[in-house]
Design a protein that fits this description.
The complex is a heterodimer of chains A (172) and B (443). Chain A has 172 residues and is mostly helical. Chain A has 7 helices and 2 strands, in the order E-E-H-H-H-H-H-H-H. Classes of the chains: A mainly alpha (172), B alpha+beta (443). The interface between A and B is large, with 48 and 48 residues.
Chain lengths: 172, 443
């Protein structure tokens, strides 16, 4: 009986699978920590986004990647004041791009993980802003310094976090 | 065609998922105007209800456990030096009791004056303490979750405060918890007044989580350090509560004739642990009318300090202290007035009109008199400071030396609006002039 989640059948690239508890527990834990720990630093750090990127890149399949992003983003939306779906759409796109990227480049290297996360934070922010301004009618402001700082912090955190989450990968 | 779907399976799936989410988003944004979010969270998205409901018990356990250990340690640490602190506090209580007497007089007077001026502001009658168990976790939304919900009779749009200042308003209510939109969220707003200059505006949050007032003209002078309080005009926050302090005012480049006034919140919105939800507010004028009868400072003192001898034991003691020889109108020559319930506030206002028709004399003009030890008769009954205006609101207290049958006089203004006597003509003279040689009540 296979209790793990098999997410790819491609043999030419390294296949990573995760157990069900990890697949469900890690995203929930990330959301829980994000809303529970009232640390100002954590508002710059986007743990659900990092988890989305990690699973998307590790699974290397776009559809599971974007569904993971959609679910995590929608759950995160529940805690915010804006309409549900803003983070959901943004993380869906990030999940899709992350899994597509994971097929083509080496994403296990710390340097590439940093750059990849840095870029994805910017994309996530851009998509969020576009949805907020165009669809929801919000009054968001793009602040470059803040966005770059957030991308930098999340990129550095990703290097550490992904190294820890690598331990949950199931090897064949 | 099959080849097309197989080849572009992933992009098509992405488009499908995005389409579903955009449609779902649109249904929320295009919510009908009549659909008011219900007090029990009926207007809230189901996914939000499920998520918050699922997480809330776990967070409550975490918060309670942490609080248990933290409080246990603090309780132990606090025992040190508690005897000395107790004595100091007892002294402080005694001092504050004395001060309370004076403040009560001021508050009563202020309420009477507000009744006179027909102020319709609200003040807090009931609050509920709640614990912050979560926050939005993102900088794009300033929102906290508290551990009280519809089971605790929390409703949407209730104001949330701390002793330091206002925090925000209840946005969504669930069974066990509620979400509170902080005042520094960019979707928030509150009516405010600058305390010194009395300029009114609306304080709003910015995307960076700061507080700003944008609707004050640039020719107004606003200085840093000025206190900002709620105006009560938004009908959510009670009037007079602290919002913050002005930290700077600069011309608004985008909106030229206006200023951008930055405000530092009085409450620390980043470190909220416990808040108060205002669950009930009362109309100030009604409360002033139906509230406890005002008492003389001497009466309050004699209650608190029984050893203080009363100077004039033969003085007619009226229930409530200052319900002074002016009985409630039992009957009236005008039937309409008889059937119409007359509140105390109305009585007071009416009495003030009576006083206006006749200048206060030594016997009737000394409203809410304060007994001065060592003096007798009319001389001993001196009007207290600031009570000249109060005398306009509160019927004059009859002195024991010259008891006057005032009921007839009181009835006159009560029927004045219905009678041929034009009431407004008396109103301008209702504000009495301060009498010479007034003294403060000897507290």
């Amino acid at each position: 009986m296979n209790s793990s989640v098999s997410l790819t059948s491609r043999e030419e690239i390294e296949v990573h699978r995760f157990s069900w508890p990890v697949s469900i527990g890690i995203p929930i834990l990330a959301i829980f920590l994000q809303v529970f720990l009232r640390v100002r630093f954590l508002t710059v750090l986007d743990l659900p986004l990092l988890v989305t990127i990690f699973f998307a890149v590790a699974r290397r399949r776009p559809i599971p990647g974007m569904i993971t992003g959609a679910l995590i983003g929608t759950l995160q939306d529940a805690w915010t004041g804006h309409p549900i779906g803003v983070f959901g759409i943004a993380k869906t796109i990030v999940g899709y791009l992350g899994s597509s990227l994971g097929v083509k480049v080496d994403v296990d290297n710390p340097g590439s993980r940093f750059l990849m996360t840095f870029a994805f934070v910017l994309i996530h922010r851009f998509v969020y802003m576009a949805i907020s301004l165009q669809l929801v009618g919000g009054s968001e402001a793009w602040i470059w310094s803040h966005t770059l700082l957030s991308a930098l912090v999340n990129g550095l955190a990703a290097v550490v976090l992904f190294a820890g989450l690598d331990k949950f990968k199931l090897r064949n | 065609m099959e080849n097309f779907f197989t080849r572009y399976k992933n992009p098509l799936a992405l488009m499908a998922v995005l389409f579903i989410q955009v449609v779902a988003l649109a249904t929320q944004v295009k919510r009908p105007e009549g659909a008011k979010p219900g007090s029990t969270g009926s207007g809230t998205r189901l996914i939000r209800v499920w998520t918050v409901t699922a997480f809330t018990p776990v967070e409550k356990v975490f918060v309670s456990t942490g609080r248990f250990f933290r409080d246990g340690w603090h309780n132990y640490a606090d025992l040190r030096g508690v005897r000395k602190q107790n004595m100091e506090l007892q002294d402080e209580v005694a001092r504050l009791q004395m001060e309370q007497v004076r403040l009560k007089q001021d508050a009563d007077q202020a309420r009477r004056l507000q009744v006179l001026l027909d102020f319709k502001e609200k003040f807090i009658t009931k609050t509920m303490a709640a614990q912050v168990i979560a926050f939005s976790g993102t900088e794009q939304s300033r929102l906290i979750t508290i551990d009280k919900g519809s089971n605790d009779h929390i409703k949407t749009d209730m104001a949330v405060i701390t002793p330091d200042g206002i925090v925000g308003k209840v946005k969504d209510v669930f069974k066990l918890s509620s979400q509170v939109l902080l005042i520094n969220d960019h979707d928030s707003g509150a009516g405010v007044i600058l305390e010194n200059s009395r300029l009114q505006g609306i304080v709003k949050g910015t995307p960076l989580g700061e507080l700003q007032i944008n609707d004050i003209m640039s020719d107004e002078k606003v200085e840093a350090g000025e206190h900002v309080i709620t105006s009560g005009g938004d009908r959510i926050y009670p009037k007079g509560y602290s919002v913050g302090t002005v930290i700077g005012a600069t011309p608004d480049r985008e909106n030229d004739p206006f200023l951008v006034i930055k405000v530092k919140p009085a409450a620390d919105l980043n470190r909220l642990e416990e808040v108060l939800v205002i669950t009930e507010m009362a109309d100030n004028s009604r409360s002033a009318a139906t509230g406890p009868e005002p008492m003389r400072a001497a009466d309050i003192l004699s209650e608190r300090l029984p050893s203080v001898p009363k100077v004039d034991p033969n003085a007619p003691k009226t229930p409530g202290g200052t319900q002074t020889g002016v009985p409630a109108p039992k009957s009236s020559s005008t039937p309409a007035k008889v059937n119409k319930p007359v509140s105390a506030g109305t009585e007071q206002k009416a009495a003030s009109m009576t006083g206006s028709t006749k200048p206060p004399t030594s016997s009737t003009g000394a409203a809410a008199t304060t007994t001065i030890p060592g003096k007798t008769g009319a001389e001993a009954k001196k009007p207290s400071s600031g009570q000249t205006q109060a005398s306009a609101a509160v019927p004059a207290e009859t002195t024991p030396a010259k008891p006057k049958p005032t009921p007839k006089k009181v009835k006159t203004p009560a029927i004045a609006p219905d009678s041929t006597t034009p009431a407004p003509s008396a109103a301008p003279t209702a504000t009495p002039k301060p009498a010479v040689g007034q003294e403060k009540p000897p507290l």
